[in-house]
Amino acid sequence: MELLHQKIKQEGVVLEGGVLKVDTFLNHQVDARLMFEIGQTFGELFAESGVTKIMTIESSGIAPAVMTSLQLQVPMIFARKRKSLTLREDLYTERIYSYTKQEESEVTVSRKFLTPADRVLIIDDFLANGEAALGMARIALQAGAEVAGIGIVIEKSFQPGRGKLLEQGFRVESLARIASLEDGEVTFV
Ligand code: G4P
Ligand code: NA
Ligand code: NA
Q1: Cα–Cα dist 165/34, whole Å
Q2: How many domains does the chain have?
Q3: How much is the CA Rg of the chain, to the nearest whole Å?
Q4: H or E element that contains 110
Q5: Is the CB–ligand 1 distance for residue 83 below 6 Å?
Q6: What is the complex's ipTM, to 2 decimals?
Q7: Atom number, ligand 1, closest to the C-alpha of residue 126
Q8: Nearest ligand, CA of residue 123?
Q9: Containing domain of residue 116, as a range?
Q10: Can you give the CATH number for the domain in which 24 is found?
Q11: At what angle do helices 32-45 and 62-72 cross, to 10 degrees?
Q12: How far apart are the CA of 126 and the centre of ligand 1, in A?
């Protein structure tokens, strides 16, 4: 994914606390051509994985996830985020703690969109501590579905997310892996 690496180098802005701002093409303004190529790449990587559903969390995971769903010709589901929620029987619900934002959110998926027959490919824009991906995996498991793999656009490899996901036996494919954001510089693995 040469284009993704170029975009990160040219347009990424390194903020305090090891945060990379990429709002020109991923987190606010969206580059559709780049998202299309991201979908093609995940499509190739997971072509033989028997994927039946793509799952992400709103909002920034939606663009890469929908392009992947276009390639693999399976539906895409985005988990919805809520601050708090009275328990509802027709929803799978998981709590996800964000270290970056220092807040917990509840994410939900309607029971009608996941079944034990599903093999779910989890897609997300960033992998930092791995909590979002693990929360999605727990939703898949609640449904009795299998996790076919996890596809990440930008992995911050200096944070523990990748290790936590591998430890649980998941296949992780990250299109850009950042080794360091020190001194305002992006260094890839
Ligand atoms: P984790 O899921 O891997 O544990 O990550 P964490 O809780 O630390 O991240 C919470 C939110 O911050 C997520 O977005 C995640 O994508 C985003 N994030 C983490 N590190 C970075 C970074 O370096 N740069 C950017 N731009 N985002 C980062 P979210 O709350 O789900 O928001 P949304 O943008 O998807 O709506
Ligand atoms: Na995000
Ligand atoms: Na996200």
Answers
A1: 26
A2: 1
A3: 16
A4: strand 103-110
A5: no
A6: 0.92
A7: 16
A8: 3
A9: 2-188
A10: 3.40.50.2020
A11: 50
A12: 6
